[in-house]
Design goal:
heterodimer, A: 294 residues, MetI-like fold, 2 domains, 73% helix, 0% strand, B: mainly alpha, 13 helices
């Protein structure tokens, strides 16, 4: 039986080259999936550069006339700028708060053995799985009541949306970060304790810097979750606090449907999250593996 | 101590509303009582009786929506898993352009849902959409343009968009799962004379079982509860053949403001999901132990 030469890294899965049948299957399947994945992106980009009469008549693959006016007009057709600012404020606040809370909770889950630790993780994760509609009606009523009792209007305010959104990403964030913290040796914080740090200082001085990739991943994830949420945004915002998720529909409630401007706006609202996602995807795979190993 | 803040917000947004939700499902909570919802009269089980009565109009519509959702979920989850799994396994070995492909495959997942679903809605337009242009004008498969967002075809449109959106997640998770399969397993299989197809069947697929167990459950729950895709695709009025449950409950609650019945529907939905998830985990875990 041949033995593998020592110390030499094996690069491929199989020691032999894959057969042509595999290579052709790979080319065809991956090719078809590439077209499927990119088709809407192409439509988005090409249609955003067409004048209105070209997007209201039969579809054409190559734009006959190229114009950037949809990118200029889209800010005037609907108050897209205001929606953009609203989305930025809500999502940034939700992401920052969610990360802060998740870091504390994940540190506790990872470092302390307490009763109900597994139950806590399980409950936290399972809330992620419940239908949003289940929380919508009661949360709506609770916000009404809080408004009646204290005068703090959560309904139609950005605060209400921030509170709602931060909890959406919290369960997954805690789970992911706990896995990440587990991979950081305990001896690191024990060393900090010996040097006279309390648990909080050990967390901020030692554990958080070591877990920075995980924390950034979680922050981006929280931001993206909030950025794409439609259900709660459609009920809990009013004209002044409307976010992009709902605001984008305004282009099609007019008598004309400005498809070219919708496509242009779709691209512009996608930029922040796509940029974030590209930053995150490297960490996400390692993060998922860290969480799964646990 | 550190857990407290997270716990507090979870309580406020998830657990308390759940309790309140169950509470108001027993109340005759209509528009009249909305501002003073605590004082709405008790209704006992009548909300449940109305929504579960398959002979009444409301119950019948709910049952229809439930069946539609089940069919939609089964199809969409199956296809998403198939695409993601195929892509992850085929792209497991290094080859030129693999990194670029990975980035491309993740774009549907990276775009904000509403932006990409609006684009799909544009592609499915009757007069000026891409899908009819390709199928009717270029390939001549259909004798006349198809209405994709109305009537029976809306179901196809919904499944397509949902698969487009979700398969990258399956791809991502399976890709991560592949990394934890020890190389030695493949080497041993190769030494025993297994070709690449046999390696996939005998090494890769069995090793992915635990990853698949969780992945399919997560995909199931997300697809079943998906609100954004149908809501953005069809607007306020979902066509009958694609009237999935979350949109159905949303519309019947906010159209009539009858939150009592809406909550009763939500509670029934939750019970169903709990039973299915629990049963699934029990069944798959037992089967895993048997091996």
């Amino acid at each position: 039986m041949p033995t593998r030469p020592r110390g030499k890294a094996v690069v491929t899965r199989a020691p032999m080259a894959p057969p042509p049948s595999f290579i052709w299957t790979r080319r065809i399947v991956l090719g078809v999936l590439t077209v499927f994945a990119l088709l809407p992106v192409y439509v988005m980009v090409s249609s955003s550069l067409k004048p209105l009469q070209d997007v209201t008549s039969t579809f054409s693959w190559i734009p006959a006339h190229i114009t950037v006016s949809p990118y200029v007009d889209m800010w005037r057709t609907v108050p897209l700028g205001r929606y953009f600012v609203n989305s930025l404020i809500v999502c940034t606040c939700a992401a920052l708060l969610s990360v802060l809370l998740a870091t504390f909770a994940a540190y506790a889950v990872s470092r302390y053995r307490f009763r109900g630790r597994r139950v806590f993780t399980l409950v936290v994760l399972s809330t992620q799985m419940f239908p949003g509609i289940l929380f919508l009606l009661p949360l709506f009523l609770i916000f009404v009541s809080i408004g009646n009792a204290t005068g703090i209007a959560l309904l139609g305010s950005r605060t209400g949306l921030v509170i709602t959104y931060l909890t959406f990403s919290l369960p997954f964030s805690i789970w992911l970060l706990a896995g990440y913290f587990d991979s950081i040796p305990r001896s690191l914080d024990e060393a900090a304790w010996v040097d006279g740090c309390g648990p909080l200082r050990a967390l901020f001085r030692v554990v958080i810097p070591a877990a920075m990739p995980g924390i950034i991943t979680v922050a981006i994830y929280a931001f993206m979750t909030a950025w794409g949420e439609v259900l709660f945004a459609s009920v809990m915002t009013n004209d002044t606090t409307r976010t992009l998720a709902v605001g984008l529909r305004d282009y099609s409630t007019q008598t004309d449907v400005y498809w070219n401007q919708i496509m242009a706006a779709s691209i512009v609202v996608s930029i922040p999250v796509v940029a974030g996602f590209l930053l995150m995807q490297r960490f996400l795979v390692t993060g998922l593996t860290a969480g799964a190993v646990k | 101590m550190l857990l407290l803040p997270a716990l507090l917000f979870e309580l406020l947004v998830h657990l308390v509303p759940m309790v309140v939700g169950v509470f108001i499902s027993f109340k005759a909570l209509t528009q009249l009582y909305l501002a003073q919802w605590q004082h709405a009269p008790w209704a006992g089980l009548s909300n449940y009786r109305i929504v579960a009565d398959v002979n009444g109009a409301i119950g019948q519509a709910l049952l229809h929506s439930f069946v539609v959702t089940c069919a939609f979920t089964a199809l969409a989850v199956g296809l998403s898993w198939l695409f993601g799994c195929a892509a992850a396994i085929l792209a497991q070995d290094k080859f030129r352009g693999r990194g670029v492909l990975r980035a491309i495959f993740l774009t549907p997942y990276a775009l904000p849902v509403y932006a990409s679903v609006i684009t799909w809605a544009f592609m499915f337009q009757y007069n000026n959409g891409l899908v009819n242009h390709v199928l009717h004008d270029e390939l001549g498969i259909t004798s006349r343009p198809t209405f994709w967002l109305l009537g029976d075809n809306s179901f196809v449109a919904l499944v397509t968009v949902s698969v487009w959106r979700n398969w990258p997640f399956a791809f991502l998770v399976i890709m991560a799962g592949l990394q934890s399969i020890p190389r030695e397993l493949y080497e041993a299989a190769a030494i025993d004379g297994a070709g690449i197809w046999q390696q996939i069947r005998l090494v890769t697929m069995p090793s992915l079982r635990s990853v698949n167990q969780v992945l399919v459950l997560v995909l199931f729950l997300w697809t079943f509860n998906d609100f954004t895709t149908p809501y953005v695709l069809f607007g306020n009025a979902a066509p009958q053949p694609a009237d999935v449950i979350s949109v159905h409950i949303y519309q019947s609650s906010f159209l009539t403001w009858n939150f009592g019945e809406g909550s009763a529907m939500s509670v029934l939905l939750l019970l169903f999901l709990l039973v299915v998830s629990g049963g699934y985990l029990l069944l798959t875990s037992r089967r895993r132990d048997a091996y």
